[in-house]
Write a structure and sequence with these properties.
- The protein has about 190 residues and is α+β, with helices and mostly antiparallel strands.
- The protein has one domain: Peptide deformylase (Peptide Deformylase, Alpha-Beta Complex).
- It has four helices and nine strands.
- The chain has a five-stranded antiparallel sheet, with helices on both faces.
- A hairpin with a 2-residue loop joins strand 5 and strand 6.
- The relative contact order is 0.21.
């Protein structure tokens, strides 16, 4: 089932998510729905807050990056209750976009590599070194689980320059090819 994606300005995108356990209701179905929603929207990652759930769950499939970044091949993961154990001091700047911030792309600097610990969809604990585009996509989704969006990583000047676009997104004045959950705004 395709789920609506919440847009910038929604309070759920600013909340620290709560961990879940293997008994979370309909978890397998939720994960399936998240992947389906992400694919329909042409995304490479989707975090639970983006579908209006404040839980520590994200899905990633970086396959669309494979042509330019071969390490993306096969990087399809479910991250439950992830944590970053270690991150490199070396940074890499890359133009990011987000399904919750449609039509907005900005250069964001992030660590080149991270060591992460998480549970997969079978609730098996994993620890993994992610580098390059894998690290980039993971950190973007991890930010969502921490109540952050990629524009929070921009300079205050850049955010000021984007204020109108951000306001348009938060008030629903943006077109998307996928279903979005709009905020109830007073006119």
């Amino acid at each position: 089932m395709i789920l609506p994606i919440v847009g910038y300005g929604s309070p759920v995108l600013r909340k620290l998510t709560q961990p879940i356990d293997k008994d979370y209701p309909n978890l397998s179905e939720l994960i399936e729905n998240m992947f389906e929603t992400m694919y329909i929207a042409n995304g490479v990652g989707l975090a639970a807050p983006q579908i209006d759930l404040s839980i520590s769950l994200a899905v990633i499939d970086a396959q669309p990056f494979t042509e330019k970044y071969p390490e993306a091949d096969g990087f399809k993961r479910v991250f439950i209750n992830p944590e970053i154990i270690e991150m490199s001091e070396e940074k890499w700047t890359f133009e990011e976009g987000c399904l919750s911030l449609p039509e907005l792309h900005e250069e964001v600097s992030r660590p080149c590599s991270v060591v992460v610990r998480y549970f997969d969809e079978n609730f098996e604990q994993k620890e993994e070194l992610l580098t390059g585009i894998r690290a980039r996509v993971f950190q973007h989704e991890f930010d969502h689980l921490q109540g952050k969006v990629f524009v929070d990583r921009l300079s205050s000047l850049r955010r000021t320059l984007l204020k109108r676009k951000l306001n348009d997104i938060s008030t629903g004045r943006v077109e998307t090819s996928y279903k979005m959950k709009r905020l109830n705004t007073k006119k």
